[in-house]
Amino acid sequence: MAHKFTNRLKQSSSPYLQQHAHNPVDWREWNATSLALATEEDKPIIVSIGYSACHWCHVMEHESFENEAIAEIMNAHFICIKVDREERPDVDQVYMDAVQAMGLQGGWPLNVFLTPDQRPFYGGTYFPANGWSKLLTQIASVFKTQRTEVENSANGFMKTLGASEVEKYGLKEVEKAFSQNDLALMFKKLEANFDLEKGGMNRAPKFPMPSIYGFLLRENHINKNSRGLDHVRLTLNQMAMGGLYDQIGGGFTRYSTDIKWFVPHFEKMLYDNGQLVSLYSEAYSVTQSHLYKEIVFQTIDWLGREMTNAEGGFYAALDADSEGEEGKFYVWSNLEFSKALGSDAPIMSDYYNITDHGNWEADKNIPYRDDSDNEFATRHEIEIDELKDLVKVCNFKLLQARSSRVRPGLDDKVLSGWNGLMLKGIIDAYAAFQAPSFLKMALKNAAFLTSKMKVGRKLFRNYKDQKASIDGYLEDYAAVAQALISLYQITLDEKWLNEAKSLVDYAIESFYDDKEGFFFFTDHNSEALIARKKEIFDNVIPSSNSIMAGNLHCLALILDNKDYQAKAERMVRKVIKLVDTEPQYLTNWASVISNLVQPTAEVVIIGENAQEEALNLSQHFLPNKVVLGANKEGESTLPLLENRGLINDKTTFYVCRNKTCQLPVNSLEEALKQII
After folding, report:
1. Which of 574, 597, 620 is the last residue of a domain?
2. What is the pLDDT of residues 195-217, one digit of tens each?
């Protein structure tokens, strides 16, 4: 197909940027050449930030960036730079903070006006075409005629951007013993915002926020708080049966626009699904809920079917839109549903709440469930196994019918940090269910990450077209290291432990700020932006600092490394007051704290069945433990394995806490008594 316009984005590694390659706007990537041109021509910069699965990013592109008259204004007066926030979260962080400093609501698309030396002076999110055109003309005029005011405004915002997170939030190290009461207080503050009817937090839109429920599982484990566990079960049940979850093909969408988990924003993100696979697997190990097992297996099936490249890397996202319409790929008319299922349509229409006129918009149905399988089987007077077989067969038919539709856009770049989150999810699923296919998938992904996206000790952010590029961020090092630490503990293969240590050591050398005791988000060897940020708050993805604190704690115990432990505890002691008062956005920190409330169990397994027993141990929800092992004495040089041999010529378990060990035992059952 011949295009009237082609710009520099055609050569980009980002599918999102490539989507703008045929805009009449003279888009450039964020790089030294583009930034130098702004200085050379003394033009303000428009930096427009979005991502592939962002619906309103596509809307603004169609309305404004495909408009030749608007493009003419942009090209004449500005240096126009497009940024994929998923490839360049460092750029996104800086300018999102800038827009919020302007007193504006953040979000995407993010459109910010900069001086030629990259200082922000105005910005916003989505602008309709008329408003955007008028704003461009006004900004161009102001930049030429009121340059002093523009410079003063930019300097004012720079003062805010230059403040460190430690200063901004008053993060001071406190000498305080971590206690169960801290966890109980955090729970109480979270509980005040629970939706006790539909689960989750009491607001809309509703995001899954897995780190909240991961903390609740841990708080329940320590404090035996049934209210926390009850809310986890309510939330996970409602999410699994709602429109948020793709009932036909598996996988969770980004968020629910309503309070009932019914109407999703249809994009599917790898990072959400990775964390949710972890969460449902952990919840299964506590509850033995068959629903959670089904969700995990179906989601991993979706991952393998739609989101995995030939090398074992996982793609970033699926768009919400197809054929220019949000959700079109996923919704059903009653006629389409009936045609796909034939005589089974009536009962399955009841199962998924499909109606003649549409349960969402006119003639559009979002499949969702009101009843558990047991409740539905009882109501229809059929056996539960018969129902499950029917659902399986009908879902296959619906998936086949759906496959003939125009698919949503696939963002096929591979991001190392998001792969780390998904890898951790698959490992947790393998731990819970012992499905050999899960381990195979995990090992292939781990091999891909450490061979294709890691060169020497350095990790790259993205991979596309068999090429890794962009220096990794703290998120990447933290998430991949976390997954590899988990992979070691279920395989006992020390190469994964060594890879994790290599990543953490590089992060300490290249990201750590010894003065403030936290890690910067960016590598000190990478491009310097106008501000260097530290990510503290847990959001839809846990903060990279909280993940790294957990990594340091685990590795400190496994490797007997006092420096790692000192760094982890210093980080936690600086945030604990904030966690106590504002736990909702610090729940992964709260999970790290839960592992410091009581001494962590150090479990060493020696014997030819060591790996099998490590896997069996992992089926139990015991979050505050580390597991090490070897087939025989002397096979490993890890400090905790020194002088650890067989007792009674049988596989032997050694359980220690805080440098105090219990008597070795020869069975998992006896070891569990010592751990619990």
Report:
1. 597
2. 999 999 999 999 999 999 999 99
